[in-house]
Each structure stands twice: as structure tokens, then as C-alpha cells.
Amino acid sequence: MARALIKVSPNPRRGEVIEIKTLISHEMETGFRHSTTGAAIPRDIITTFVATYNGEEIFSAQLFPAIAANPFITFYTIAKESGTLEFRWTGDNGYAASEQVKIAVE
Amino acid sequence: MKRAALVPSAFAFARATRRLAGPVRRLGAVAAAGTLSSLSLAADIPLNERRSSYEAMSAATKAMQDDDSANPATLWVLDGEALWRASAGAAGRACADCHGEASQSMRGVAARYPAYDAKRQTPVDLEGRINICRVEQQQAAALRLESKELLALTAYLARQSRGLPIESNDSRLAPSIEAGRQLFQRRQGQLNLACAHCHDDHWGEKLAGNAVPQGHPTGYPLYRLEWQGVGSLQRRLRNCMIGMRAESYAFGSPEFIALETYLMWRARGMPMESPAVRP
After folding, report:
1. Which of A82, A87, A95, A105 lies closest to A21 in space, CA to CA?
2. How far apart are CA B95 and CA B102, in angstroms?
3. Does residue B249 contact residue B241 with C-beta atoms inside 8 Å?
4. Domain B48-65+166-278 coded CATH 3.55.40.20
5. Residues of chain A with C-beta less than 8 angstroms from the C-beta of B70
6. Whole-model pTM?
7. Nearest chain B Cα to A69, which residue?
8. What average pLDDT does the segment B41-55 reach?
């Protein structure tokens, strides 16, 4: 039940610095743990996060095993024009999730 | 309520708490007076001195709880909403088919659980109630306690009571509240501690650098940063018992239900925060 939550002001003023909050559901299994029977639990993490604004990359991050479960990433951008913010998370075992938010700049 | 039965082990407790929590003011004063036979620890916390452990959290953790889009428990709430609307079991019915909109029908419900079940003549907690409904009405298998699905449904229901005061005014719960109180005040484990020693007598002080909370269950199920996930009140109680080096009760056991019933009575009138965030 992978889900993402995005929070961004839907109607910013032109030139305004806006905060973008992203939260995604993911176990972020480190690969360092062992099960109760001693078997190694394989790594399963999100490795890359990319945000684009009307197709242009505005923010990206690489994630590592030390990042906690359900990564919460917050960043800022300048509201230049109306359009679409797209967020993509990719990771181990072919993990891929994406989310889009439309903003209307006044 | 005095804990006279605790007296014989008072010195063991003093040794344990000195190690764990620094000076033990009350015990020290009593020992100096040489009246150990009349030793009594603090009474119930006065109603107007009760505090949610929200107040002891850092600004960052508070902000996380206050903003639904930053509170990771929202992910469980959304999953719970999907489960609420999904058909399950041989009856092919969803929770919503009988109960309608949870924002209406489930408002305030979590604030009065565990509730007395007249048919079973025992209190059941919210997780237990959901499973009774699943088995009897939906004819589906009960969800495993602490499973993601059950926590999601519980979080979704508890969310409908956020901000409402905890209610505990059903007289049929009295025997369970009393049983829970006995458990809360009974010494157990290798450290020979009762819940009350920390949460009635030493709240606000430090244990290994962390604030000792009063232990009011206002926000369950909640997202605990240490767990990196949502857990129930019973899981939290289990943590404390392991910390006391006591053998934990089983999930869903009558002891845990009695403790939950007592803790909700103890927190009566305090506003629900579910699903909360705790460090």
C-alpha cells in the first residue's frame, strides 16, 4: 500500500518562495539486519528522489540505508509559473513511485 | 490510593531508581525520618496536573504531529480509510456498508474504548471490536494484532475522535479499571518496579536522558520515531515491561485490556490526539 503525501501551497504569488513537503510510505530496510533465525534481511530502500517543475529538475536527493522509514523530504523553490510539480522515487527491487501536483501561480 | 503493599521492597526500589533516575526525594525524606513502616508513594496525579507527553516533545516532533502532511501516521489513516470502504469476508460487506461515513458514525468512538461488551461480559478494546465485527458481521478472518491492516483501521477510527475528550463513565467497567489499577501498582520484573513508580511518582524527571511521562494514552495508535512505524498502546506497554525486565503479557490478553481500561479512566477528560507522533 505505497502512498505519498505532498503538501504545497496551491495558489502562490509569482516570485514567492514556496515550501514543498513530501512524505512517502516505505520500509527502508537497511540490509544490515538479521531475522530471528539469523538470515540476512536484504536491503530494500529508496535510492533516488527527483522533483521536477514543468519538466525541469529543481531538486534531487540520493538516499542511503541510514535514512529512516517513510522518508520525509522538504525543500523550497520559487513559484515562477503555473504548471505541474512531479516527484519520482526510485529504489531497490525495481521500486518506482511518482506523484504530481498542479499549482496555479497568481 | 496508597501502595502499602509495596513497602517491603522500598529499599530495592530506592537502589533501582537511584541508578536509573538520580536522587529519590520522597524515599530519601522518609528514610531520614526513620518511619519506613508508614512509607507511601504519591497518590493519583491530580486531574488538573495531568499532562500529555506531547508537551515534553521537541518543537520539531510537535510540528510533525500537528501537520497531517508531515505526520507519517497519516499514511496509516489513508490505508485505513481504504480498508473501511473495501468489501471483506464471505458476507462481502465493507465497514462503510453498515456504518456509513466514519466521520459521522465513528466520531468519539475511540475516545470511549475499551468499552464494555454486554454479550461477552468483558471490556473490549478498539482492535478487539474491529475484529469482532470482522468475524461476526463480515465473516472474515480476524486481523492479526499489530498487523499493518489492523493498525491502519484503528488509526482511521481513532482519527475521527481527535480533539474530543476521553470518556470513561460506564459503571460496568469498574471491575476492569480496578484490575488495571492493581496491575499498574504491582511490582514486577527483575527491576522490581511498578508502572506507578515512574508514571505516578517520578513523571517530569529524567530516565536515561528522556523525560518520564505521566503515561496517558491520548494518542494511540501512534507513530513512534523509534519504531519507524505505527504501534498500539499494547505495544507501548510491552516496551515498558521489557524495560522493567518483566515478562510481557500477550497481545490482546485480559491483563492488557484491564491496563488499557485503567489508563483511559486515568486520562478521562483529556483530549484525544490520535494518531499522535512520539519520539
Report:
1. A87
2. 9
3. yes
4. no
5. 7, 21, 23, 72
6. 0.86
7. B228
8. 87
